[in-house]
Amino acid sequence: MFEVIIGLEVHTQLNTKSKIFCSCATSFGEAPNVNVCPTCLALPGALPVLNENALRKAVSFGKAINATINKTSIFNRKNYFYPDLPKAYQISQFDVPIVEGGELFINVGGEDKRIGITRAHLEEDAGKNIHESSHSKVDLNRAGTPLLEIVSEPDLRSSDEAVAYLKKLHSIIRFLDISDANMQEGSFRCDANVSIRPKGESRLYTRVEIKNLNSFRFIQKAIDYEVQRQSTAWEEGTYESEVVQETRLFNTTNLTTRSMRNKEDSAEYRYFPEPDLLPVVLDEKMLEIQIPELPDEKKARYIKDFGVKQGDAEVLISSLEMSRFFESLVERGLNPKLCVSWLNTELSGLLKGDLSIENSPVSALKLGDLIARIEDGTISGKAAKEVLAFVFENVDFSIDSAIEKLNLKQVSDDGAIEKIAEEVLKANADKVAEYKAGKDKLFGFFVGQIMKEGKGAFNPAKVNEILKAKLG
Ligand SMILES: [Zn+2]
After folding, report:
1. How far apart are CA 379 and CA 370, in angstroms?
2. How far, in Å, CA of 232 to CA of 219, rounded?
3. Which of 154, 203, 294, 412 would you label with 396, given CA atoms 20 to 30 Å apart?
């Protein structure tokens, strides 16, 4: 009965070596307040200078989402006070951002959908407040780290679509190498604007902002909770009083949201052009930056060149690491179908908990060695699963040494197979006669018997070949 309206704002930290308006390092995990200087400490008289690399990364992003890149854009002061913001204003972009009007495509339930991107602008990150029992501390290492804020249109209609959009955005950002987009370290974080309306209506109702979500799972849960809260209020007649324009925080323990503060209107920030920075004017060289192959282009290429199925291709482009892994397998000339199933199903099935393709105990080189051993008939597919599970736990073993250790080599030796085949045929002389009289499906029975006698170690292709010869 309700339609869900979601718009997302993503803050991604650009992976420049230095901060956006000074030369301090952006490195993560340093001792507090070591990466600071007069500019990012906001000492009187210190002036900002724009980092050209941050600008370049914003332009690459604009190109990747097919957006308009404004040749001239302007930095503004966004005024607010917070202890981790020593200037009491943030340098951001307001009415003329660097990137405007882009798009990306998501695939949910097999359907492609276009999601509009309103804008992407450059700004500086704030520091960090650290609250301890009796006092609070401020760490300004992060103050001045370049951020790209990416604002979507309210085009998303479910938490599934929201997550699909974020995953796609995350993957584009990683493929462009403009941010490490590490969610645990806060370099890719999301605010979700959520509202509902009766199906069929076109007006927008009150939207609630859920702040600082930093995992795909929490984003899904936070949106689901918020939709539930708003729908219940509507049905119980308390919508007007309970659903107000505000910022809410998501509690990751009990999976609910709670009110943090009323949402400011942009007028309250008293934006005005930053007097210490000139308007940013892009030269031709900057506008002609080349960007690397993007996820959707890779997907199309995998489908066309390697015959990968649509759904599998989606998985392969879900992260930069997955696509690199896959490409290094097929570059060895291995059968693409085997590569897809051993990567997407078998190896991915083992990667659980903290393990993902980035820190997989089985490298692309090793998985390739395994696939090569299936292709050359050394081991069966079934034995390969055992080998994979073994090297997954025992990283020091190579594929060949694991096959040796587990004694899983298939017998392809003609003599051994012939001997068993003869025994089987002799013991089933009646069935051989039936076969010769035309009961073709007994062939499978003979294969089964020989494989059984061979304790599953015989190469099935060889068994078929030898049996055919023997039965004439
Ligand atoms: Zn600095």
Report:
1. 9
2. 20
3. 412
| String of DSSP letters for 302-346 | HHHHH---HHHHHHHTSSHHHHHHHHHHHTTT--HHHHHIIIIII
The rounded Å distance from CA 21 to ligand 1 centre is 7
Token readout for 208 is 């609630």
Q: Average pLDDT of each block of 10 consecutive residues along the chain (472 residues)?
A: 96 97 94 96 95 97 97 96 93 97 92 96 95 93 97 97 96 95 93 96 94 92 96 95 92 88 77 96 94 94 96 91 95 96 96 92 96 91 93 95 89 81 88 87 88 80 85 78
105 CA distance to ligand 1 middle (Å): 38
- N-terminal to C-terminal alpha carbon distance within the chain: 70
Distance 41 CA to ligand 1 centre (A): 7
DSSP one-letter code for 211: E
CA of 138 to the centre of ligand 1 (A): 15
Q: How far is it, in rounded angstroms, from Cα 383 to Cα 69? A: 54
Instruction: Give the residue from 186, 156, 188 showing the smallest Cα distance to 170.
Output: 188
CA distance 310 to 302: 9
Q: What residues does 92 pair with on adjacent strands?
A: 76
Q: How many residues does the chain have?
A: 472
Q: Cα 221 to the chain's mean position, in Å?
A: 18
